[in-house]
What does this fold into?
Amino acid sequence: MPEGAYLYCDVSLPVPIDQAFTYSLPETLRHRVKPGSRVWVPFGQRKLTGVVLQCHDERPAVAAREALRLIDAEPVLGPDLLALGRWIAGYYCAPLGEVLRGMLPLAAEIRRGKVWSLTDAGRDAARQLLLDSAPDDPVAQVLRMLEKRPLSAAYLAKALPLADKVVRSLERKGFIAAEQVQTERDPLKAPAERLRVELSGKEPGDIKLNKAERELRAFLELHPGSHNLKDLEAMVRNASPAARALGRKGLVKLAAETLTMTVGPIRARHTLNNTQQAAFELIADSIRAARFQTFLLHGVTGSGKTEVYLNAIEATLEEGRSALLLVPEIALTPAVAGQFFARFGDRVAILHSAFTDVERSEQWRRIRSGAARVVVGTRSGVFAPVQNLGLIVVDEEHDGSYKQEETPRYNGRDVAIVRAQAANACVVLGSATPSLESRYNAEKGKYTLLELPGRIEERPMPSVELIDMRQEFLETRKQATFSRKLLEAIGQRLENGEQTIVLLNRRGFSSFVACRACGERIQCINCSLTLTYHKRDRRLLCHYCGYAEKVPSCCPKCVSEHIYFLGLGSERVEEELHQAFPTARIARLDRDTVTGKRQYETILQDFREGNYDLLVGTQMIAKGHDIPNVTLVGVVSADVGLGMPDFRAAERTFQLLTQVAGRAGRGSVPGIVLVQTINPDHYAVRLAAAQDYAAFYDKELHFRRMMHYPPFSAMANVLVRSEKQEMAMRMSSELGVLLTPPPEKLRVMGPAEAPVPRLKAEYRYQFLVKAASRKALNELLQCVRAFAFRNKWPATALVIDVDPLTLM
Ligand code: ADP
Ligand code: ZN
Ligand code: ZN
It folds into this structure.
């Protein structure tokens, strides 16, 4: 047998079973299948795509079925990423197959844009076959066509009615192989904001043009060069259809814009100030030494962390290595991307979950080939196939969106550190409000702490004032949404032409609908949660499962007509602001107004450009934006998150308030922040107002230590769920028996009803496990999984969440 050819391969499949499956390799695949390649294999009655873990010649005990097809000519996961996948599967107690599937952005591309070409074996065979066979033999025809050049599956199918079948058999024989190539999308179909238009140079001659087409041509003649079509729409009537029509006639050139051009304003490059420089030098030393080291860059809002990242990335490139920057889901805006393009040009690749599969796989390929050496991505960007990794930056490292809330429940920040360690790369975790865990790690010397204690150019931190809404009520005798002080401050901003951000971290209009007669609160039929009233949609909505119903005219329980709405959401805040300031231009940013990423960017961009006076929204508006004209931030209620049955409620409130306060006064005019609350004495609220991270950290750490919460324990949430309540109860009590008494070094609380006992039509019971040792925790969880497997629990019945961020 030739070198590197094997009889079998072990394949990890996306099924909730913890084992690899052995398949035999047909002769044609033996030397082509490698670890990290995807293969298509039979599994039960189905056919699945899996990732090859290893190839070998060891005959398995039971006869192996044959692998059907190799999907990638080159492995999609290198040894480093395969190892990372294994680590995730072990640490987060998740099936490896599901982990690996989640690491690949290319799930959808198997059928897309495939181009066939002859393999070496195919070339030999073609020569022979073409001599022997009749000219109209379909196999010979396909081979002959492919001998000249690689062809797309679609092209072959059009040319030959039987091509599909022939191609499959040739592939099985190993005579042809597919390359995945990027199919050029028809630019005529791209949306206006992604199209650039310019005159083609061709003269219309006798070609008939309608009015819009003539106008557009005239405009382009007056303004030579290429223009964004969306911008043209603002200047020329019907520019979009006209441009497309002219494009079809060959009179203009239309090109789909690459991401490089859809970026926001580009900030000037700054010379680092002293503290930035000091932080940068320590990071750069570590990069130059190719040493694994984790830095925590703790810099207040507006301290210029981004500039430090940019310089660190530059230093990485100078060393001939690549850099990865992770940002929270919502923070990856054109404004952020713009700075990276400005600095690093086409060496940048952007990975974002809102991109289409085609866009993502295109970026993925550029990274893999080494063409893109600076990668900016959200959580799953941590799996980008970056070559020769030298630096990973995790911006806003405390952000909850780094944690995936479905299997595998990994935290991208923590995975980044593990990946960097294996690559001898450097990690920079940046935040104005580091998570307790990270700051604690810095304290313990595990991370190196770098501090940027002041804002750029000695701009003052915004001054924060708490407004006690209980006092306000006593004085005004009114249950008002806005205090007098906040209204007055907004009015002043409107007069001065300055901008205001108003935060209420709860969407919808009213958060409850209740009956005055019987006290009933209307609940979701699938979840033990109340429904939220959405006025614009005239619906009651469940924010957890998406269930919607019409607003009832009477109580579903007692048929009383006296139903009322209570609790405040961002939709109502917007409406009340319109009433209070009828001429103000107000935009709202929350999950109801933003359905796509581009919409989010449009609203923010419009606000940045001064097209709105006020921006109302949920936590979406608190993240990272740098809008100099914002001089007032109002928080309608600081109390929204405090009542959550979750040990991180205080930390999350502190972070949100500090972050949103940090949006004020980033320009030359100082900013103020008004925070309305009925808990002015709560330490999270009080210390956020004082912008005193250190004091908050001490107090919170003390609480965590007392309660054995992270960082003083390794924690996991084990959830047992079923649509049938008896079943959920039975499973949880069985598990309760297994876990009593808990092994040494472990505390187990439960089984108990989960804080949300019923969610998405499932009944839920939970165990909280706290461990003094990470190893003991992992052993216990593996044992729980084995138990569920032995007892044939349904695959979805057991959820294990290691290092959970929420306990709902
Ligand atoms: P952070 O992320 O720490 O909140 P940013 O990185 O957004 O802060 O920086 C805040 C502002 O300061 C930005 O407008 C940035 O361009 C500017 N800036 C950063 N570094 C410098 C510097 N050394 N000199 C002048 N301006 C700077
Ligand atoms: Zn009632
Ligand atoms: Zn629901």
